[in-house]
Specification:
Elements lengths: L23 E10 L2 H7 L14 E9 L9 E5 L8 E5 L3 E3 L6 H5 L2 H14 L7 E5 L4 H12 L3 E6 L4 H6 L4 E4 L12 E6 L5 H4 L4 E9 L6 H6 L3 E4 L6 H12 L7 E6 L3 H9 L6 E5 L2
Parallel strand pairs: 6-7, 6-9, 7-8, 9-10, 10-11, 12-13
Antiparallel strand pairs: 1-2, 1-4, 1-13, 2-3, 3-5
Helix pairs in contact: 3-4
Bound molecules: NADP nicotinamide-adenine-dinucleotide phosphate.
NADP nicotinamide-adenine-dinucleotide phosphate binds next to helix 1, helix 3, helix 4 and strand 7.
C-alpha cells in the first residue's frame, strides 16, 4: 500500500524479500487472515508508515531462521512484523507458535489476533471462571465466535448477540442464549452477567452496561471503555489491547487441532483478491474469518 484510501489502494507488487534480524525468522506465507485493523490502517483511521504491507495474521513454513526456537522447514503461525499479505514475511520468533499438524494453514492463520484477543478478554481481563456468565456482543464475528467457544470449553455460560441470520450459528457454537440485536431488547438480560465482552463498539457499548451484575465488568476492544458510565452503575469498564503471547497462541491452536473449538472461515480468497476481501470485511458482517490463501 503506497497511500491510504479505499480497497483499490491495495496493489500486488514485486518486492524484495524481507531480511530476518537476530531472533527473527523468514516465513514463506501459506495463508494470511484479514482483521478489521487492516482496513482501519488502509483507510488512514490509524497511523501507519507508508509504503506498507498490511496484515498481521499468518501461517506458513520457516524459510530461514535466526532464532534457536525455529529451524528451516518448521510450520508456524502467528503475527508477521513485516506484513502478512505477502509471499514472505519476517517475524520475531517470540510472535510465532509451532503450527499443530492437524491444523490447515487457512485455519491457523485465522487464529492469532482473533484468538488471543478473545482469550485475553475472557480470562486475563475478565477473569472468568467455570460457573460464571458472559454476554458477547458480536458473537458471530472473528473474535466473537471464538470467544463463545472458549467460554463453553471453560464452563462459562455465554449469551451471544448477532443478527437473526446468525442465530443457529451462534447457538451451535455453544451459546446458552442468543439475542438478535436488531429485533430484541437487551433489557431481558438485566443485572445478570459477570462480564460483557464488547466486540462491536459505538452505540452498542453503553447498552451492555445494564446487563452486568453489580461489580461486573465490561471489556471493550472496539472503542473506548465507558469508565464514567460504568462507575455510575457500580460496574467496571476496561479497554483491552491484545498483547501477543506465543504460548497462549499455541494452546489456542491445540484446542482447534483437538476439535474442541472450530474456526469458522467465511471465505478463502487469493492474495490477488485482497481488495475484495477488505471490502467484505469492511461491510461489518463477516461470519468468522476471511482468509487469503497463497497456495
Ligand atoms: N483491541 C484489540 O486488541 C482488538 C483486537 C481484535 C479486534 N479488535 C476490534 O474488535 C472489533 C471486532 O473484530 P472482529 O475481527 O471480530 O470483527 P468482524 O469479524 O468484522 O465482526 C463482524 C461481526 O460483527 C457482528 N455485528 C455487527 N454489528 C453488530 C451489532 N450491532 N451487534 C452484534 N454483532 C454485530 C456481525 O454480525 P451480523 O452479521 O449478524 O450483524 C459480524 O458477525 C473490530 O473493531 C476490531 O478492530 C480489537
Amino acid at each position: 500500500m503506497q497511500q491510504t484510501g479505499g480497497p483499490e489502494v491495495l496493489r500486488l507488487v514485486e518486492a524484495a524479500r524481507p531480511e530476518p534480524g537476530d531472533g527473527e525468522v523468514l516465513v514463506r506465507v501459506r495463508a494470511a487472515a484479514i482483521n478489521p485493523i487492516d482496513w482501519k490502517y488502509r483507510r488512514g483511521l490509524m497511523p501507519k508508515q507508508l509504503p506498507a504491507v498490511l496484515g498481521s495474521d499468518i501461517s506458513g513454513v520457516v524459510e530461514s531462521s535466526r532464532s534457536e526456537r525455529f529451524a528451516t522447514g518448521d510450520e508456524v503461525f502467528g503475527l508477521a512484523a513485516s506484513g502478512g499479505y505477502a509471499e514472505f514475511a519476517v517475524s520475531s520468533a517470540a510472535l510465532l507458535a509451532p503450527k499443530p499438524a492437524g491444523l490447515a494453514h487457512e485455519q491457523a492463520a485465522a487464529l492469532p489476533v482473533a484468538g488471543m484477543t478473545a482469550w485475553q478478554a475472557l480470562f486475563d481481563v475478565g477473569e472468568l471462571r467455570s460457573g460464571q456468565s458472559v454476554l458477547i456482543a458480536g458473537a458471530a464475528g472473528g473474535v466473537g465466535h471464538l470467544a463463545v467457544q472458549f467460554a463453553r470449553v471453560a464452563g462459562v455460560q455465554a449469551i451471544g448477540t448477532a443478527s437473526a441470520r446468525n442465530r443457529e450459528f451462534v447457538l451451535g457454537l455453544g451459546a446458552a442464549r442468543f439475542i438478535d440485536y436488531a429485533g430484541e431488547e437487551l433489557a431481558g438480560v438485566h443485572g445478570e452477567v459477570d462480564v460483557a465482552f464488547d466486540t462491536v463498539g459505538g452505540a452498542t457499548t453503553e447498552t451492555l452496561l445494564d446487563t452486568l451484575r453489580p461489580g461486573g465488568m465490561i471489556v471493550t476492544i472496539a472503542g473506548g471503555a465507558p469508565e464514567q458510565a460504568a462507575a455510575e452503575r457500580g460496574v467496571r469498564a476496561q479497554l483491552l489491547v491484545m498483547s501477543p503471547d506465543a504460548e497462549e497462541l499455541g494452546r489456542i491452536g491445540g484446542l482447534v487441532a483437538a476439535g474442541e473449538v472450530e474456526v469458522e472461515i467465511a471465505q478463502v480468497m487469493a492474495l490477488a483478491d485482497v481488495a475484495e476481501a477488505h471490502a467484505l470485511s469492511e461491510s461489518g458482517h463477516t461470519r468468522g474469518k476471511i482468509v487469503l490463501s497463497l497456495d
